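FAQ
Q: What does a multi-component entry look like?
A: The components come first, one per line:
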Amino acid sequence: MNPVIINLWYVVAAALFIFGLKQLGSPATAVRGNILSSLAMVIAIAVTLFNKEILSFQLILIAAAVGAVIGAIAAQKVEMTSMPEMVALFNGSGGIASLMVGWAALYSTGNTTFTDVTILLSIVIGGMTFSGSILAWGKLSEVMTSAAVVFGAQRFVNAAILLALIACSVMFCMAPAVDSPYLYAVIGLALLIGVMAVLPIGGADMPVVISLLNSYSGLAACAAGFAINNNILIVAGSMVGAAGIILTNIMCKAMNRSLGHVLFSGFGAVKQATKVEGEVKPIVAEDAFLILEAAQSVSFVPGYGMAVAQAQHVVRELGELLEKNGAEVTYAIHPVAGRMPGHMNVLLAEANVPYDQLVEMEDINPRIDNVDVAVVIGANDVVNPSARNDENSPIYGMPIINVDQARTVFVLKRSMGSGFSGVDNPLFFGDNTRMLFGDAKQSIAAVVAEFKG
Amino acid sequence: MEAVFLAMVLMLSIFLGFELISKVPATLHTPLMSGANAISGITIVGALISAGGESDAMSSYLGAAAVMFAMINVAGGYLVTNRMLSMFKKKDTTQPGGKA
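Then the predicted structure of the entire assembly, as tokens:
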């Protein structure tokens, strides 16, 4: 096919990508948006096969079939609670693909220096995305420790790696060749940097990292687009890059931390927060039921603990019972609850909670004092009032859901341990707080049983 | 001139991307992320061209491996996004007392 016609089809694909992303903006049209976007991908792939540089199809067919089968099986099998890990893995495979595209582009003749630089960029960004995503997967699936791994000379080591990477890249660009030792050095160092970048990031900061890696995978595709002079890679890649950056930004704001702070400092409770003293007031399912039965408005505040306990289905059941009982039920979701942006929303949607009951932090906070019962399920830092009023707290300044201002708060918790940040939570000692100890799923199930019985 | 033209395309699409995505509500952030992730598999277009060329065996093998990885990203990403999105339902479409 004539290259001009191929490029015209790329324009069509770009338009469909844009339209698809636009429709992803509302739950009502999102399914269609995703289908449009996949249609764009099919068009882009199909017309590329008509490129006259493609002479043999055997390898392509085998590779594409294998990839499609692996992807499809993984997408079918994955549990909604493990979605962050899955996205990390997909992300990593996109990253390594961009690395290889860049590498393969080195074999074509007549590359200008500009092309060589963009090839290196796609190798470096792709490599970082790959190794960073694999490490993020390791942390999320708890194959390795999910805590921040910090050691003394970390910044120094990282700076040294970065300098070495830049030096090797410059050396390579001065004498580009496919067998240049600098090429291997660049690939190795890029992989190393991805690992080093994710290592000091702890479990609760994962939403930021996942968003950032997502952005990198787009930028890697974008760089590959420059390397092979292809518009559609640049358009699609940069939109993904923008999406990732926006989400990263939202996540950072929701934690009141700068991106630099998340990336480079781990999360040490450096400042000694004011020690919280007081008595917790435990409650049993029976009494919880009596209070809930009388409530006019109930708001559930889920956190990562809900995902761990797989409590979303029983929570929805309780929500439905409360609604039948005449209460107004909402699910208040903090932007960084869970391990990736929107993680809680997907879990609740899976449990058949209608999306109009999912409310954001900014919407619930102004009317929180009209909420009769706020039920905190496996969340801790995102409802910690010391973020609001204790200047010594490490999480001071982070926007939280002000559940302590609701008339009554139930906190479902395994034991009295502190949250990820290791900060004491004065909420547990509040006058209006009742602690429902035990596994979240069992606790809620017990309340549901009271309702039914 | 080619590079300048591509840079222009880059600049415009970044702005467009920001405009489009900043309107997505928090509820849809996970599907947005996995959907965007699938789009980043567009690198498959470059992979196909390398894999199908016959200039150098190494380049073809690298391309083929890239096709496979990008395809995992594309197929998996779109399917899982679709799976997630089809779970988002509005109130009146859920039947009360239907599924336990």
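Q: Is there any commentary attached?
A: Sometimes. For this entry: The first strand of chain A starts at residue 297 and ends at 302.
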